[in-house]
Amino acid sequence: MKPQYDNKILSSFLLYLDNKILSKGEAFSNHSSLFYPIESFYDGYYVYASPFKQLVYDSSVTGSNQISGVFVNGSFIKPGQGGLAAINPNQGAVYFNTDQASNTISGNYAVKDFNILITDENEEKLLFENKYFLRPKTSQNVTGISTESLTFPIIYIKINSAEHKPFALGGLDEASTNIRAIILADSAFLLDAACSIMRDCKDDRFTILENSSLPMNVFGYTGNFNYTGVNTNKIPLIWSVSVNKILPSRGDLKNLNANVLCAFADFEISDLKTHK
């Protein structure tokens, strides 16, 4: 099925929010590390992972090292060279066509303070059922992070509700979309900073991007993504933002992992679109 309006606005909002947190909060740290072999879920490819995920791929984030390739035995290669098929910053992994065996794979990159993902899970499962692993604070791990591991701090986003109302003759509608961000942090400082940035998103506008402008495909990063370069036709308006912290002392939240601090941020987004 072709992507529809809801798919486009959610993926575009993810890129907007990711850029906002990375840029305004300087929410990243630069690292260098080895990449370690992990079990591959892609037939015909050999996967090597860093001790972190997610990695910054937006070149508009000042001061961050975007990963564009890796070093194999000290020689730098990009996708399409030396058997390197693709880079997946969201998984902190690189894919090779051939087994690198005893080769040493390393790289320089920036690690996000917050992972950010689209989810279709309900809040109860995200908060109570999923098992999270605290992302390492340094790059001294002796293995890479598995693609199946859920690491935090993390922000999940999902569409809670949407409504279209007639706005003008000719089939122009006012589209109202409510997007919820579920924030899981490992410190009060990090949670408060993320909540503050999200509240300041009120009255911002962003661009709904088409597939050709999106930075990811089935393997990961497509390369050369600059958010400020594609965020040009800014129409959707963030009409309101409501942020609420989740208190473990509440009776229905006593089973919440005490090491995970949580908050919900609800964004009401207004847009004009034609219906066909």
Radius of gyration: 20 Å
N to C succession of SSEs? HEEEEEEEEEHEEEEHEEHEE
The end-to-end distance, rounded to whole angstroms, is: 17 Å
Proportion of residues in extended strands:
35-45%
Binned, the helix content reads: 10-25%
Q: How many structural domains?
A: 1
Shape: globular
The biggest sheet amounts to: 5 strands, mixed
Give start-end ranges of low-pLDDT stretches. Answer: none
Average of pLDDT = 84
Summed up, the helix count is 4
From the helix content, strand content and strand pairing, which structural class follows?
alpha+beta
> Care to count the β-strands?
17
In order across it, which strands form the biggest sheet?
9-12-13-17-16
Which SSEs are present, and which pair or pack?
Blueprint: H1 5-24, E1 28-34, E2 36-38, E3 46-49, E4 70-72, E5 75-77, E6 84-88, E7 93-96, E8 105-112, E9 115-118, H2 123-129, E10 133-134, E11 151-152, E12 154-168, E13 172-185, H3 188-199, E14 216-217, E15 220-221, H4 227-230, E16 237-246, E17 261-274
Parallel strand pairs: 9-12, 10-11
Antiparallel strand pairs: 1-8, 2-3, 3-7, 4-5, 4-8, 6-7, 12-13, 13-17, 14-15, 16-17
Give a brief outline of the structure:
The protein is 16% helix and 37% strand. With 276 residues, the chain is an alpha+beta fold. The protein is globular and about 65 Å long.
